Amino acid sequence: MAQAAQFVNEISVPLRVEHDKKRRQFTIRLNGSHDRAVLLYAYVGKKTVDLQHTEVPDAFRGRGIAKHLAKAAMDFVVEEDLKAHLTCWYIQKYVKENPHPHYLERIIH
Predict the structure, then answer these.
(1) What radius of gyration do the chain's Cα atoms show?
(2) The pLDDT value given to residue 2
(3) What is the pTM assigned to this prediction?
(4) Are 52 and 87 in contact (CB under 8 A)?
(5) Residue 3, C-beta contacts closer than 8 angstroms, at least 6 positions apart
(6) What are phi and psi of 75, to 5 degrees?
(7) DSSP characters for the chain?
(8) pLDDT tens digits along 15-30
(9) C-alpha to C-alpha distance for 108 and 4, rounded to whole angstroms
(10) In terms of Cα–Cα distance, which of 40, 25, 33 is closest to 9?
């Protein structure tokens, strides 16, 4: 049993963030399984998004996975010349820990 838990806790492939613009989400498939980490957002104006929620399955938490989602979302905001509300507490934390000017100038308080 401990061996199975250890396998689940190890990520054996590089993390790749996928952006589904139609569903308005960023996802990372974990170990090629059905488990996914996800960051959800919504447009709240023509050029404004609300980064709403980040979720990582329990077995994969504490490994920096959400950080990859947060970076991809903030990079998207910059690349698309958008403004962002940060409803998600994790995105707020990520920006506080990574206070890049190109992120900070995009945030609506």
Answers:
(1) 15
(2) 40
(3) 0.86
(4) yes
(5) none
(6) -65, -40
(7) -HHHHHHHH---S---EEEETTTTEEEEE-TTSS-EEEEEEEEEETTEEEEEEEE--GGGTTSSHHHHHHHHHHHHHHHTT-EEEE-SHHHHHHHHHS--HHHHTTB--
(8) 899 999 999 999 999 9
(9) 44
(10) 33
Distances (CA, A) of 72 to 9, 18, 58: 23, 9, 21
Residue with the two structure tokens 């104006």 = 45
Q: Which of 47, 51, 60 is nearest to 26 (CA)?
A: 51
Both tokens of 92, joined, read: 């707020």
- What is d(CA 77, CA 90) in angstroms, rounded to the nearest whole number? 16
Q: Which residues pair with 30 in a beta bridge?
A: none
Length of the chain: 109
